[in-house]
Design goal:
Length: about 210
């Protein structure tokens, strides 16, 4: 019977094991994948580390297992998503049942939606996005591929978050703002203007590190 495996044995991976179990039931998570050969055969939160993604691919395909990508860093998550697809495996979407998914909201493959998240309505979550504990995502927001929304983030309506952007813990973004691809928003920042691609902004109101208006 098909199940799922989790790439990553760090904090996000251990948390994802619990969320996936809450979603699918006991026994659905077969174990972890980790490229470190010294971790193979060890036990993490009661589940075995099976091996590296590439070496397990044939067995996973044969069983029809899906692969959850529980890695926080957006660039690394993008790389693993590409590897999963190149190996003809299916990325698993983890939706903790304690999250609120509003009407006409879509969640892409390989994304992880954590407990306490609220996606209000008409939200688009692209592939391999992580929306962490207690984040609030308002109407008509778009979260780009492999973006990371930290715990307690508040996104007002019509916010666009570019691919691989990283929104820090407790940050707030006002309505209609665009966060560019690969941008970083610091913890607790209040973003009131668009953030260019690749920029790093901090503070209240948020400004680029080194000065200048965001």
């Amino acid at each position: 019977m098909a199940g799922l495996v989790i790439v990553g044995t760090g904090g996000m991976g251990r948390e994802a094991a619990g969320w996936a179990t809450a979603q699918h039931g006991e026994g659905a998570v077969r174990g972890f994948l980790d490229a470190d050969p010294e971790r193979r055969g060890t036990i993490v939160v009661g589940l075995p580390v099976l091996g590296a993604l590439a070496e397990m691919a044939d067995e996973l395909c044969e069983r029809g297992d899906e692969v959850a990508i529980a890695i926080g860093a957006p660039l690394a998550r993008t790389r693993v998503l590409g590897e999963v697809r190149a190996l003809r495996l299916r990325p698993s979407t983890v939706l903790d049942p304690r999250a609120v998914i509003g009407p006409r909201t879509s969640v892409g493959e390989g994304s992880i939606i954590c407990p306490g998240v609220i996606l209000t309505c008409d939200v688009t979550v692209e592939d391999a996005v992580i929306v962490n504990y207690g984040a609030l995502v308002g109407h008509d927001c778009v979260l780009g591929e492999a973006s990371f929304i930290a715990p307690g983030v508040h996104l007002a309506g019509n916010v666009t978050v570019g691919a691989r952007a990283d929104i820090g813990i407790g940050a707030s973004v006002v309505q209609g703002v665009t966060i560019g691809e690969d941008a970083v928003v610091g913890a607790g920042a209040v973003v009131i203007r668009d953030v260019p691609a690749g920029a790093k902004v901090v503070g209240v109101p948020a400004r680029p590190i080194g000065g200048g208006a965001a």
